Amino acid sequence: CHLSSAKGYLHRAKTAVSIDANTFQFFTRNPRGGRAKAIDPKDVAAYAAYAPEHGIEVILGYAPYTANPASDKQAEHDFTMMVLAEDLARMAETPQAMYTLQPGSALGKPVDEALARVAAALNDVITPSLGTPVLVQTMAGEGTQVGSTFEQLASILDQVELDDHVGVLFDACRVWGAGYDIVDDLDGVVDEFDRVIGIDKLRAIHLNDSQNARGSHNDRHARIGEGQICPEAPAAVANHPAPRALPLDLTTPHPHPSAFA
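Below the sequence we write its predicted structure tokens.
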């Protein structure tokens, strides 16, 4: 599940173990702003010792919503590049971690240009020595969001020079919102992903339900079984041969948020 960053890596790992999880996701900084809490080297060391003993092999850091690599506005670009550079430097201190970001919004500019800007941002921060894979998330297509089709995601990845350092995070709610039928044609969706992007680029899953109908282009998560995606679909995604061995994170509303504080 997605866990609070307030008390550090070791606390997150122990929380994950307490709910029988062997992976977790967390925001690298304030999701609605830009501030990042200082990393405690002792906490990282304690986590690095604890995680393998409890089956935690890979975790996901999540960039703040305010980062927008698709934007052509200078202030947004500068902020985004600061976030990506700092976050990847910080993630380098964390064993077995991947980093996820949303590709952002074109803000009325041509989509092809926005996709190129996302790739250019990744090219600026990804180096040959980078040990943290960077995952671009599937999007629902709200407003001027880019990344709502497999073709758009492929366009971004194809323009990344060090393409072995990048992959895709498949978000069930957002893929559903974008119009892909993961209920009645999951195999077809996976086959299309493989044909357009390549199944080797699928690196992680957000397993969630949606408050909205398929093709709504809305991204409003619901708890599994309480939304518009049938209850069997998340299980089918989790047990599909393609993503079965990948980290799957719940990013759904929790009835008691304080439980994971």
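The mean pLDDT is 91.
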